[in-house]
Amino acid sequence: MKFVDKINCCAIAIAIVLSSCGGRESRSGDEFDKAYFVFVHDDTNEYLEYYYEPFRKHDVPFSAATIPSNINDTHLKTLRDIVDHGGEVLAHYMGSPQHDSPDSLWLACTRDVKRDLQAYGFNPKGIIRADNTEPSTEKGEEYCRKYFLYANDKMGLSAQYDLPRTLMLRFKDRDEFISQIECDKKVKGIHAYGFHGGRDDEKWVTAELFDSLITDLKQSEGCEIVTYEYLYER
C-alpha cells in the first residue's frame, strides 16, 4: 500500500470515492485490506491530554497536528508519549497562505514549522492543512514537496498531498457521526477525522465518545486505528 505521486506520472492506484451513506469523501481501493481509521487532534491545545487519554488506555495510535508555539512542558511530555506508543506528531501551523502569498509565508507554514518540531525532537513526515489555506495550489505542492512526504485535504496538487480527512465539526451531533462510522466500517480504505476541543460546534466530541468508539472499532472485524505514517510506510 502506498500513496501515489501523479506529478511523476505514476498510475493512480488509490481511487477517491464517495461513501454510500452521507456522501463523505474517503479514499479506497483494491490494495486496501481493511477499513483504516485515523484520528487527528488539531493544534496541540489544552485539550490534548484529555483526548489522548482514551487512546492511551486502549493502546491505539493517536495523531497530533501540532503548532510548535503551542507546546508547553506538559504537551511535550504527552507528545513524546504519543510517539512512544505508535502515534504520530504531524506539522500544523497558524496562517492563511494563498496561491499569491509571498514565499516567506509559505516557508513559515512549512519549513519553519518542521524545523521547530525537529528542535523538540520530532520528525514530522506529514503536514495538516489549516482550514483557511487556499487548497490545490502550485505553491502548496511546491512547499509540501520540499519538506513533507504527505499532507491532507488538497494541501497540494498530487495524490499524497490530498489525503482524506473530515472535520468532526461538520456533523451535527454524535448520532450522525456514529452513523457515518458504521458506513466507513464497511469500506476498505482510509477514513480520517480531525477535531479540536473547546468549540461550540464540537461539544459532543468527548473523551467518552472516543472510549466507546475505540472499543467498538477494536471489536469490529476488518477495522484498525492507525496513523498516516503507518499507511505511508506500508
Q: How would you portray this structure in words?
A:
This protein is an alpha/beta fold and 234 residues long. It has helices spanning 48-58, 73-84, 103-109, 111-119, 138-147, 174-184, 207-219, 228-233, and strands at 15-18, 25-28, 35-43, 63-66, 88-91, 126-127, 150-151, 166-167, 189-195, 223-225. The strands form two sheets. Strands 1, 2, 3, 4, 5, 8, 9 and 10 form an eight-stranded mixed beta sheet that branches. A two-stranded parallel ribbon has the order 6-7. Helix 1 packs parallel to helix 7. It is globular, with a radius of gyration of 17 Å. Residues 3-20 have low confidence and may be disordered.
Output the number of helix runs: 8
**Main sheet: strands, sense, barrel:** 8 strands, mixed
Alpha-carbon Rg, integer:
17 Å
Estimated share of beta-strand residues: 15-25%
For the secondary structure, the number of strands is 10
Give start-end ranges of low-pLDDT stretches.
Answer: 3-20
Following the backbone from N to C, one meets helices and strands in this order, namely: EEEHEHEHHEHEEHEHEH
Average pLDDT confidence is 90
| Multimerization state | single chain
The helical percent reads 25-40%
Shape: globular
Strand-pairing-aware structural class: alpha/beta
Terminal Cα separation, in Å? 5 Å
